[in-house]
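WARN retry 2 of 3 for item q-0093 after timeout on previous attempt; input resubmitted unchanged.
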Amino acid sequence: MNMEATDMQQNLRKEDVHQKEIPEGKKIYLSLPGIRCAACIAKVERQLMAIDGVFKAHVNLSRKRVEVTATSIPIEDLIDQLKFSGIEALALDASMLANLQDNEAKRLSIRLAVAGFAMMNVMLLSVANWSGAGGATRELFHLISAAIALPAALYSAQPFFKNAWAALRNWSINMDVPISLAILLASFLSLFETLNGGEQVYFDAALSLTFFLLLGRYLDHVTRQSARSAAQDLSALQVHTADRVSDGLIERVATSTLKIDDIVQIATGMRVPVDGHLQDRPMMIDRSILNGETTPVLISAGEMVHAGEVNVGAMGQISVSTLGHNSTLQRLSELITSAENQRNTYTNLADRAARIYAPAVHILAALAFLSWLAISGDPRLAINIAIAVLIITCPCALGLAVPTVSVAAIGKLFTKGFLVKDGAALERLAQVNLCVFDKTGTLTMAVPQVAIANLSETEKSIALALAQGSYHPLSQALANALNKVTPATVEELEEVIGAGVQARYESQMAKLGNGTWLKADFCGFGLKIGKRKPREIPVSETLRPGVQPMISGLKKSGLAVNILSGDRFENAEAIGKVLGISSIISEVDAEEKHAILTELSTVGHKVLMVGDGLNDTAALAAAYASIAPASALDASRNAADIVVLREDFGDLPSVISIARSAVRLSKQNFFIAACYNLVAVPLALLGLATPLMAAIAMSASSLTVLLNALRVKYVT
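OK item q-0093 returned
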């Protein structure tokens, strides 16, 4: 090494390195149309984790679904377990999910309209009573109000009643219990007063309460839909039919019926239905779904095309190579879904708060009723105050706002070309203060550039024949540069590990490899034919697009930037000088990279590792947060928290900005919710908030934090 490892610093290793590994199992998705808040999340996950054979259960509140990792458990058993606990669950497919979401909005809007219409009419009838009407006139208006309000409230408030009854039936409590109690108490206390000739009724308050609660729930639904999952965007790109070619005939079949090695025809303008290898002729492909680039790329015969890409050239055919969940599109979708299901520490804090919130609400309401009954001796006043307490203490703001921040941030980053695999990584990314970059394949392009101008035609032909016999990056780069040359005929082709490749050409030995092996006066890459003097083949590295503005952006964000490379110091230093990076560690292998990242965890900084090679995998896992380009090896991509789908790295600083904004907005939402409760709860307990005021305040707080969460979508 050319520098001490302590030049770079890190405080903590990534948390999930030490977490217990979850056994592999099949994934089951259930729709949960009735869940509303963080307390529901905790209940669903507890119930499912109690089943033998279930390894993991993660609820996605924004998408109203749960992902279950389990052994071969019948899906009916999972549904029955949740049903026994009062939670509606349905087997999920994409079309059903869309219908459920649409129907939910329709149902809420209808109930909202009924509650609003009834509320306005009852308020009109109340004007006479407020104006001093008495006797038979007052009682008649009360009866008419009851005839309008009771059916309307019972119909419109059904979402609250159903969820509350499901909880009580199983001896548990959710936040719809106090809401339902508030509506029912206000309605039936008013009916009692009406039947007994009382002067004060609360039909307008009960309907107003129902209306504003429904309005908040409807707007919450619409708002969360606007922060929809990026996985839903990918699902919309799935093609459900394909043109299969069999014995010269074309047959339109369901994509699910395709088999490996089937031939599928891709017409011009058609989206590719499955992953496969291109047959025969080249094809012009729009690959923006994978790399974010709008410029089409030319794919040659034998190369891979991926599900979701679009054929923008002539018609072609592919041979199916992967199916179902193994396709690129499905894997991307599952990675995003998995990321969205991960809740950061702030969300978990909200979950814990919500678990104790429901019983605390009922205790407060009971104490308020008993206290005011003892103080005033007026049961009506005591019930009104208890109703206000029940409504105003609903913790919906805590349970809904933070997941919306995560989903919105993940979706925002996906549109910028970054696939977030772990939602908790956003919090870690917000805390990093040091960026460590691998060089080759990360700061530079994976394939180096070779200069062939100084080679003769014969040398080019021999060099190509040798290069085609090796998978070394330099050999592949040389072969690409000589793609228009006809290779020479060689014999006894052999690759010498760590040195190069050699073969016999016209009774003399030809060698392609490093200068030391060629016994040349240079150390780089070269060609030697027989007893001729070795000919150097200059090699240069090309910076990855966007790297220079990326480094500038990271430094402006207050982050230190270092290079950690397995390459020679001269090469790493040359790249460092171009990019303005002075802290460089070079000539390290995979174990040394891991050791450096591990050692740095004790000296005060939190490191973001960016790398692509197999030798970076351990370092990516040891880092506090990690990023890999899409061109990285599978092992490196799997170890990284985020995959860069584009070749250009220019937007990478925005990942830090968005992550910091997500954490900041989460904290703001907790502060807003806390301030709301600090002000509203004492007012309700002191009898200064009516049930109607409580309903408006609760809805306003939820909408405030939800709208605040969506501000992350406007961060650049």
